[in-house]
Design a protein that fits this description.
about 190 residues; mainly alpha; 9 helices; 2 strands
Length: about 190
């Protein structure tokens, strides 16, 4: 669609890298970018979107890998779905994460992590046979990393029950966008 942002996750990855530099230069900025409903209601409206740009790490080495991996995931999903559908998935997750934060009256601080876990899980289902070199040594298919990622989401829910709404916020779009294809693949494999 003409309303989509082509290469959305490339743009997000670039902004994450810039945010990493900004936060390294001024760590006091970080809390002002998190999704905190009470602060949004006080006028910090940028928080409804800025949380998605928070870097997943404070390590220079790991941010390079995180940015490259986000681009990798984005390329898989955009080639399979097209930019419109990827944009719809991404912004559905963002909208539902905001709804979850306002519903529970607190941000979990894990919204961005859950969003990217959801995207990674979608990529694992879309391209299960794609192989990556884990730690540049071990060849691992995405389907196995997907199961591990799903287990981490369950563990997150078990360890942080207050995050139930945020987890649900990323599972709903996953189920809607990826669920039918995954169910069809499972039915085809069984039948």
């Amino acid at each position: 669609g003409r309303w989509s942002i082509p290469g959305l996750l490339r743009v997000v990855a670039l902004v994450q890298a810039l945010m990493f530099i900004l936060i390294k230069a001024n760590p006091a900025v970080h809390p002002h970018l998190q999704l905190v409903p009470q602060e949004v209601l006080k006028g910090d409206v940028w928080r409804v979107l800025s949380f998605v740009f928070l870097p997943p790490t404070s390590s220079v080495l790991w941010i390079i890998f995180a940015v490259m991996f986000l681009i990798f995931i984005g390329d898989i999903l955009e080639s399979a779905w097209g930019s419109f559908r990827l944009n719809l998935y991404y912004f559905s997750c963002v909208l539902l994460l905001n709804a979850a934060a306002f519903l529970t009256q607190r941000g979990t601080g894990m919204e961005a992590t859950l969003l990217y876990m959801s995207l990674f899980l979608a990529a694992c289902v879309i391209a299960p046979e794609v192989e990556i070199m884990l730690f540049f040594v071990f060849p691992v298919k995405l389907k196995f990393l997907g199961w591990f990622n799903a287990a981490l989401m369950v563990l997150t829910l078990w360890s942080f029950p207050q995050a139930w709404a945020a987890v649900l916020a990323v599972v709903i779009p996953f189920a809607c966008f990826v669920g039918p294809a995954w169910a069809g693949r499972m039915k085809h494999q069984v039948g």
